[in-house]
Design brief:
Length: 370
């Protein structure tokens, strides 16, 4: 009799313990579900005035941003360019006053960041960064240092190691760079020369100047983008208020297409190409708008879309398309906002999503995970 009571009591205690264990595990399970929610991806934004990096979860359907708990995270002095590696394990941030690169590890459960020290030294004023498609190489333009730094990436821990023969010296005032999807060529805009320099990329990350470099764009060459089929380079020229279209040859050399450069808004400072390469978008800081173009896939020539330009708030300075190609994000430094627009696949004519996020500080750059 007593034995049965003890067994029932023991069974009750075990059942109670099991129930408590299940209830303790449920929040962890839900947290993981939230972190890896299939309808979302991650975005990271640099905040140079407060030396931080803000983290957001992006809803794929609406493009809405929700800030992750614990954000923003401390970086170095004046964080600027941001890159997320293709594996979604690491975030790299260029600190423009420290002349360093911060490596952050992404928490796979919730997208939060933890910096991994020490920071990697780079050239003076790392103004722009780009990673190759496999995530094995990182390239940095050092504006004041007038150089390009290249690093190999350790896939096990994200650590950076300088590529032999780099940094590569450039003419004064390189301002930004872009890499072709195949990672064969790297293009760097030089504002002093109103030109674009091309480099071929070896498997080790070594850079070789493309014959014929530099290639003339127009007055005040400032920003560039490459179409996904690697046929054309688009350059925004802030002084001339134009956009240059340059065709990419097999060896990486660039040639202006017929009709290039062509007029756009006032003080164009950012360029974005849709995921399918059919549409081109230019942010015009001076006229506070975005000009929209459809692109001829054979010639690269851009034709203004009906209804263009559209208003884009005060001083739009940065453009970014989301990985699915459904939305265009517009960053305004003066109003501290990130606003999203729908990219219709048939017309390319932007329309507001009604989603706009106000950040805690001025935004310098933004990167979204694949």
């Amino acid at each position: 009799m007593n034995l049965r009571r003890n067994n029932r009591a023991s069974s009750g205690r075990v059942g109670s313990l099991f129930a408590r264990t299940v209830w303790l595990l449920i929040p962890l399970f839900l947290m993981d579900l939230t972190a890896c929610a299939p309808g979302t991806h991650l975005a990271y934004v640099s905040l140079p005035t407060s030396n931080g990096v803000a983290a957001y979860r992006v809803r794929n359907v609406s493009s809405g941003l929700t800030e992750i708990v614990g954000s923003p995270y401390l970086a170095g002095n004046s964080p600027g360019p941001v890159v997320v590696d293709p594996s979604k394990k690491y975030v790299y941030v260029g600190n423009r006053i420290d002349n360093t690169i911060s490596l952050f590890k992404i928490d796979g459960r919730n997208g939060s960041l933890t910096e991994v020290f020490p920071r990697t030294a780079t050239g003076l004023d790392p103004a722009a960064m780009v990673m190759n498609s496999s995530g094995s190489l990182l390239f940095v333009v050092n504006e004041i240092g007038s150089s390009i730094s290249a690093y190999s990436v350790n896939s096990a821990n994200g650590a950076l190691s300088p590529v032999s023969g780099t940094p590569v010296s450039t003419t004064p005032n390189p301002v930004t760079l872009a890499i072709t999807p195949s990672s064969k060529f790297l293009y760097v805009v030089n504002a002093n020369l109103d030109s674009v320099f091309g480099y071929s990329i070896s498997s080790s990350g070594a850079l070789q100047l493309v014959p014929g470099s530099p290639f003339v764009a127009d007055l005040g060459a400032f920003a560039l983008a490459i179409d996904p089929k690697e046929k054309f380079v688009y350059v925004a020229n802030t002084t001339a208020n134009t956009v240059s279209i340059l065709a990419i040859a097999a060896n990486g050399a660039l040639t202006q297409v017929a009709g290039s450069p062509f007029a756009t808004g006032t003080t164009p400072v950012a360029v974005a190409v849709s995921k399918d390469g059919q549409f081109l978008y230019i942010a015009n800081e001076g006229s506070n708008n975005i000009t929209e173009y459809s692109v001829d896939s054979n010639t690269g020539f851009a034709t203004t879309i009906t209804g263009s330009p559209i208003s884009a708030g005060t001083a739009p300075l940065f453009l970014l398309t989301d990985p699915d190609g459904s939305f265009l994000y517009v960053i305004s430094q003066s109003s501290k906002t990130i606003t999203s627009y729908i990219i219709p696949p048939d017309t390319g004519e932007l329309s507001s999503t009604g989603q706009s996020t106000t950040t805690s500080d001025t935004v310098a750059s933004m990167a979204v995970s694949q």
